[in-house]
Amino acid sequence: MDVTMSPGVYVNEVPSGNAPITGVGTSTAAFIGVIPDGPSAPAAAHVVLCTNFTDFKSVFGDFADPATNPWQSTLAHAVYGFFLNGGTRCYVTRVAPSASGPAGLSAALAALEPIDEIAILAAPGLTDPTQYAAITTHCAVTTKNRFAILDTPRDLASDDLSLLTATPINNQTSLLPANTDYAALYFPWIQVFDQASKASLFVPPSGHVAGIYARVDTTRGVHKAPANEVVFDAVDLRYKLSRSQQDGLNPQGVNCIRRVNGNIKVWGARTAGGDTNEASGGFKYLSNRRLFVFLRESIDQGLQWAVFEPNNADLWAKIKRNVGVFLETVWRSGALFGATPAEAFYVKCDTETNPPAVRDAGQVVTEIGVALTKPAEFVVFHLTQKIST
User: Is the pLDDT of residue 20 over 60?
Assistant: First the structure.
């Protein structure tokens, strides 16, 4: 303080040494597209931030005739559908058709890895098992903070829906990706109007669904399942599914897109593997996995101030207070189950979680438990007729 000031009362702001935890973003997407090499194509694995479709066109080009340039058409429609359905920020990179296998995908995924804000990953139209594996490994193992949106193939042999189950009939090979709760699979492809060919075109739904994720995250929160939502831009579907047909796909973790009450809607919210994931200790619902990632990343980033602080009771109290305040905010948003904060979560950071051996190792351990709210996937009404007497 300047001691030459005139007499009076002076107030100075003093940094507290820690800051409240704020929620990380969940709606930024990344797209990996297959675009042929050419003089106007950006370098492979070159990442471009797009905040609108004009940004995308300036680098990757406009809609292309699907008859002559199907991959360019696929990526353009995916990014266009993302913004049209509520997305606001996405990163786009490309691989060449000859490099769309594991090696090419690995380069593209490595280019996306350092970008912390990416929370959703899509590779429109890439439906080979090796491509599924590379994408889901990036989300579940390499980064652990991203969720993949996967497409099924456009066509099913003989229109056989059993190919989308773990045990197809007639000893055929299943088209399902490996079970993982870091990805969701969507079926079928959607039909849109293509501006280049001036005709209808079937495109993979992952770009449009990524936009729905962003839309729901903004209007309701990441805890709300991105389902029972209209797919803007879709005019029809490659396969028209009935409720009974979906009955065989839903437990497998295949999220169907159906025409419901005159609108084309996403009608599923399960992770790839569905019931199997929950049976093995994972998450059956994609909203639960994405919420858990949101909580983990928010707490991780919000507690960076604690690194190198003295590992004592004062630090433990600050951590417990900051995490508790953050989780109470999350609970008040409706993301956690419970009538009171005590029912919805707990935070423990004390001598029990931090015994001498842990402190000597330079660690501070906080135990956090949360009660997640699951989607009301099945709404059942019991109707009884009252007989007048």
Answer: yes
Locate 383 and state its tokens: 């109707």
pLDDT in tens, 282-314: 999 999 999 999 999 999 999 999 999 999 999
29-289 CATH choice from 3.40.50.11780, 3.30.2160.10, 3.40.50.720, 3.40.605.10 = 3.40.50.11780
* 229 touches 269 (CB < 8 A): no
Please check the confidence at residue 7 and state whether its pLDDT lies above 70: yes
Give the C-alpha distances (Å, rounded to integers) separating 98 from 33, 35, 44, 95, 247: 12, 10, 12, 8, 38
- Packing angle of the helix pair 53-60, 70-84 (nearest 10 deg): 160
Q: Are the C-beta atoms of residues 272 and 205 closer than 8 Å to each other?
A: no
Range(s) of the chain covered by CATH 3.40.50.11780: 29-289
Contact 175, 163 (CB under 8 A): yes
Parallel/antiparallel/unpaired status of strands 367-370 and 190-194 = unpaired
Tokens of 87: 């997305």
**Rounded to a whole number, what is the distance in angstroms from the first to the last CA of the chain?**
87
- Determine the residue type at 319: I
User: Bridge partners of 203?
Assistant: 190
- pTM for the model stands at 0.92
**What's the count of helices (H) and strands (E) in the chain, helices before strands?**
11, 14
Beta bridge partners of 151: 186
Q: What is the DSSP pairing of strand 29-34 with strand 120-122?
A: parallel
